[in-house]
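ugh ok fine here u go
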Amino acid sequence: MEEELGYLVSYWFWDEENPAPKIYPRMTAGSLAWGGKFDDGVCWSSHRAQNHRWHRQGKDMDIGKANFPDGNKINAFRDLADELFLQKRIFVEIDHENEYHWHFRLRR
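structure:
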């Protein structure tokens, strides 16, 4: 999972829609490679436990939208992720999203 998201961030770094100053996506929730929970300011209990069930298997990671200054950058990042997945250049896709973040799911 980490490798695939690394590819996505690398493509985004060089993308023409991300000129200087560069905007970096922020991973906000997932499972650490050695076990344990990583969840930046979010709760793992109650209704959110269902949303985060794939994190515990290392197949899902949340990327926050807070670092993106406007909707154009958010759309550009989402479009790049979709395009790279369809071209089979990365194997993570946006499973779902809300106003705060995307849920990326590993698809291999």
